[in-house]
Task: structure prediction
Amino acid sequence: MSTEPHQAPRAGGADAQPQRSEVLTTSQGVPLRETNKSLKAGPRGPVLLQDHHLREKITHFDHERIPERAVHARGAGAHGTFTGYGTASRLTNAAFLQKDVETPVFVRFSTVAGSRGSADTVRDTRGFATKFYTSEGVFDLVGNNIPVFFIQDGIKFPDVVHAVKPEPDLEIPQGQSAHNTFWDFVSLHTEAQAHTMWNMSDRGIPRSYRMMEGFGVHTFRFVDAEGESCLIKFHWKPALGVHSLTWEEALMINGADPDFHRRDLAAAIEAGAYPEWELGVQVFPDTEEQMFAGIDLLDPTKFVPEELAPVEPIGKMTLNRNPSNYFAETEQVAFHPGHLVPGIDVTNDALLAARLFSYIDTQITRLGGPNFSQLPINQPHSPVNDMQRDGLHQHRIHEGKAPYHPNSVDGGCPFMAGEGNDATAFIDVPEPIAASAKERRQAQSFDDHFSQARLFYRSLTGREQLHVQQAYSFELGKCTDPAIRARQLQALANIDADLCRGVAEALGLEAPQPDREVPDVETSAALSQVGGTWPVSGRSVGLVVERSTPAETLQRLASDVEDAGMSPVFVAPTGGELADGSAVGATFLTARSVEFDAVVLAAAPAAGPDAHPDLDGKAGTPKPGEGLDPRLVLLLQETYRQAKPIALAGPSAETFGAAGLPADGPGLLHCDVAEAIGQISGLVAQHRVWERFDSPAAAS
Ligand code: HDD
Result:
């Protein structure tokens, strides 16, 4: 079964409008003879107002930009398919979750704080929003890569966003939380501490959108055909595992390739390494208390450890097509947590309530009116038969005379679901509302702001904990207000004494004592990213070669990398053609270590006259023809520092020493061309050579 597009002109489909070979016209379809010169009174005379083409062209250009999203402005999207496993059938009658039902999807990943042109690898939460074009209408799952949120009530959203966005006087810093106002807010408003802890961990700097989990955050409801309901939390699990950059990599990438995540997603899809996630749910009984294991399921600053409620897989998503036009698709896509389908309903989470209002409201400004769901990327693939009429940018030509219900003028059309037809309708769960006084107050079960931050921190390995400590030290080191630092240290003292001590030491301050009792926690092994092996699909391998590298070596290495599902990039001292006719993918000047998950040397070029002088000071200054090219030394040292595997497939084992690396360092291989990629991919599957971090020349 599949949900075919209905009535919508599909981006990239037959109605797409590429640059065509036909005659250039005005917007009114009038053919043009000239578009490069304006109409003037003589070749050097003034431009004439009557030049309609000039005015039309410039006017359209003047209005090409729309307001960027207030949050999540920077993003990347992709099309794909979701297939239901049928395992959710016992819990919900949502059609797209039934067995083998295929549903088209569009996903937009994003950072939260930065503006549309900001860098991809800043420390931040990532958005993970999925639009399912189901046979029963659009369902949007608008989640993040972190399962908890900063605030418990949507009325605080403008506050947290104003605090993290650039400070308003100078609009500094861009896409960063390392500044006074952010830490001022989270230290005063301690319910933000759990989310902040996740941000300071490696989850805040993902290796790739393809390697992130996604979370619906709120508790939702599933409802079956009999009206039985249960509470659920949505989880996306990436097939490639959850992996992160090191902080040093993130900083370097921000300069070397600010589009790193966007490029990585598109390149993997282009190479056929289609990213995949399994959708799963944690299931809880829909009791009156809506509590589970002492956790208030309506508190979005809390998550439920998987050890207490396992994630049950209910379907799989594959992203297999890049957008053909960024603006039309990725920019104009409009998500909304209120876009629900029969079988899925909301709960009384106060954060969700504000979202149900906010998203439709924001689209009206951003997309210029109430008809944004008529944009191709937002159109449901199921029939739309609403009674909304007119408004800015109305694209439909509605027929009939009676867009109201009930009516007799148009024969009573359209009818309600169930009135002589078999359409399934959205049913609101008839949840009893307890009689209570109106009040601006939070339940007591929302009061504990620290134990889940502690739970997360204590579940990490020592290496990951060190990263957290370094991240807090960096961010608070950028805070210039001593009172804010002191207040945040107090919050850390309540979370974990060792963490607090480490950060205090880095800041040159005294570690405070806890100022309250925080309930102790069971740790959750599922939260650590270290350990395990994962598919290497779409990983990038730098193959260092030179013009003289034999064609068979080039071909063997490239085909072995591709056969392993990874992407080869030939890196050579200069650009041009290689012995097998293929092109150099990156030169020593343009390539940077952070672009590769592993490096294999088929050659070890010596310093040449083209060595970049700026790098000579850093990497030694061999004379031309003597010693390794200093740019190669830099590439190898950085790759080593970031604990990524390096193989010598040709050059002698002394090459490691010549690059200043310990010959017996972990993850340094010396092998035949025929074995190199097999050995390398075994190490890439672990994401990093973790034991390398314990050796002196490595970063942490
Ligand atoms: Fe939000 C965008 C995720 C709370 C108001 N949000 C937005 C996007 C994601 C999230 C992924 C980008 C969608 C896209 O790619 O177009 N937001 C979340 C999550 C939240 C959350 C997981 C908490 C669990 N958001 C939240 C609250 C409010 C908003 C409490 C307001 C009361 N969010 C917005 C917004 C945005 C948005 C301002 C900006 C652009 C848009 O909606 O379409 O309305």
About this structure: The longest strand covers residues 75-84. The two ends are 49 Å apart (CA to CA). Residues 350-366 form the longest helix (17 residues).
